[in-house]
């Protein structure tokens, strides 16, 4: 059982800048208040196989997360897959589209999947994520434009 949420936003920065910012998942705490800390392995540019390990707080509970980059196509596409064994896991990505005047359209999406008890929690989690999606997009826009 799974559910998806997504958001789209236009950022007042060129696609190459937006890609560089979003491909480095260490920026996630700047727009996602649930991400408490995050680290990248290995050092260097984000590529297929790069892993981001984070501590997040969801519904008052701290959990460890591990995401592996599964596709990178500069400056348009980033895809990830969660490797951690949590009640709810995510696969998702960014799609970037250059717009006139040096702006970029960003689409973020995540497909959430419930495991065990997480199947019961999935509905409320997807509902909350969909409800927050427009604000999430605005936080991404603000973070990139302020960087």
Give a verbal description of the structure:
- The chain has helices at residues 15-23, 118-146, and strands spanning 2-11, 35-41, 51-58, 61-73, 77-82, 88-99, 103-114.
- By secondary structure, the chain is α+β, with helices and mostly antiparallel strands.
- The chain has a seven-stranded antiparallel beta sheet, with helices on one face.
Topology:
Blueprint: E1 2-11, H1 15-23, E2 35-41, E3 51-58, E4 61-73, E5 77-82, E6 88-99, E7 103-114, H2 118-146
Antiparallel strand pairs: 1-7, 2-3, 3-4, 4-5, 5-6, 6-7
Key phrases:
globular; seven-stranded antiparallel beta sheet; single chain; alpha+beta; 147 residues
Measured distance between first and last alpha carbons: 37 Å
Helix proportion: 25-40%
Biggest sheet architecture: 7 strands, antiparallel
Q: How would you spell out the order of helices and strands?
A: EHEEEEEEH
Multimeric organization: single chain
- Stretches where pLDDT is under 50 for at least 5 consecutive residues are none
**Beta strands, count:** 7
- Major β-sheet strand ordering: 1-7-6-5-4-3-2
- Class by SSE composition: alpha+beta
Q: Over all CA atoms, what is the radius of gyration?
A: 15 Å
Shape: globular
Mean pLDDT: 96
In terms of DSSP E residues, the strand content is over 45%
- Helices, by number, come to 2
